[in-house]
Amino acid sequence: MQPDTVPRTAEAAETDTVLPPVTRRRRLIQAFRHRSLLAGSIICLVLAVLVLAAPLLTSADPNLQDPLSAFAQPSGAHPFGADSFGRDLLARVLYGGRTTILASLSVVVLGGVVGTALGLVAGYFRGAVGFLIMRLVDLLLAFPGILLALAVATVLGPGLSNEVIAVAAILVPVYARLVEGATAEVLHLPYVDAAVTLGASPWQIIRRHILPNVASGIIVLTTSWLGIAALWIAALSFIGLGVQPPTPEWGAILYDGANYITVAWWITVFPGIFLALFVVGVNLLGDGLRDELDPTLSRDLGRA
Amino acid sequence: MTTYVLRRLASIVALAFGISVLVFLIIRLIPGDPALALLGTNAGDPALVTRLHQQLGLDEPWPVQYLQWIGAVLHGDFGYSYGNQQSVSSLLAANFPATIQLTIGGLALSLFFGSIIGVVAALRRNRATDTVAMGFALTCMSIPSFWLGLLLILLFAVQIPIFDVVGGTSLKGLVLPAVTLALSSIGFNARFVRSSVINAQQQNHVINARAKGITAVQVFRRHVLRNALLPILTIVGLQVGQLISGVVIVETVFSRPGIGRLLVQAILSKDYLTVQAVVLIIAVIYALTNFIVDLLYPVLDPRVASR
Cβ-count burial of B36 within 10 angstroms (0-12 exposed, 13-18 middle, 19+ buried)? Predict the structure, then answer.
């Protein structure tokens, strides 16, 4: 709903003149909301295109070592400079983005699916199993996020897929809590009772009545956690628990940057800009979506 | 009130038990013989392996192992760190003060600046100031803290050498890490305080007070702020969790001593007993903070206790 393109009737024009400050302000809010949605989408889209089009944008191999251009400053040959092994940083940042973005998407998909399933089971069937699931959820929520991820990473060991599982473990209880609450609420509605009376199977009720009701909450949760997932993926790699060398990944490149911070600023600056832009873009998108899909959620309660 | 406190107390005891079981499982779930993993390079010594087996009670069933372990933990015995050649409890004692210093610094910065930005944004709601403040808050929340730390090092330690690259535990060495730790929480707090104040502003008694002609300052101080305070208290609980997550990263970036860095190094060097101890202690501190916040609620809002 772009306010400017809505055809304005005489009536609307009249209310405009009667209550100019309110309508103007309201329109401004709407435009701003839209602007954050729009800005977020553009940033994410541009980054996605850059990362996917990496082979077209640079002919350099992200893992090709060239001792002669070690620590080369940003120049025509190496737009973002080169790292300690003389690897082209532009190529590493672009290909590294694939790893980071794909990993954070996998985190929200994995955490979202497992958490939603647990929440549905707990909310729909309740009973002893539901009770156990929700107590486990309480327990997991009692751990500060990164601690849970680090504990899981300790058990599983380093590596990209283990890192994804570790970060997803933080999201599972969050999704389960949301979906369980929403499911329990919907189950009380008369039309669900009617569907049960008419002999609908649990699967039908979940699919036709419950999932559509929780969908917008899940979408909002997913966008607000995608940015956090990217931050944690990069952070875990930065610590040394994520991707193993030589795979490029934003957090892992930043780890190199930290080691050579006194000699080569570019290894620290460029991948960080990309990572920060991605998170800003996703967060803008999340804020916009939240305002559009779920006005009851205040703009601040989505994250902890 | 008494039932409220007792109920909270029962739930924190249950939570602490659950946390301890999960933490106990960390070592048991690692594939392979935990004793071999713990000993690392010393794993070739069969006498040491047998001794550790007995010490950890690995030949006993899990419930017995758990009881032995939790009994020792409650006496302050977390085992021996073979990697660091000293007891885990002395490692913890050596690293805790620096982390507490950093956390308090970060908490103070984030509450102070977060509240100011949030209140200003709420009072200038939907105007340019609000938009700028909220844009700033979103940026704060989106900047990866370890990247911010690196940028600060690059700027203020490498380019303009005001601070040392590797900060010590002096007050000067605290500045860059504390700012790094606080930034994302400043953004979070600003957003939360803003919505909390706006919420309080819309209450009927506030509108009534304004209609009575009380000055804006008085209305804000006596009616808005007091009501906005309760939700803000909640974030102090959440905040500790955020700051703990941040501490792990910030201490690593700045090579600062502390339990965050101790944890990371312990994970990387497979020093599992230290990992277990740090995770247990941090989780319990986090749970206790939220317990205290829960206890403070009825003091500020008597309605909570009667629910």
Answer: middle
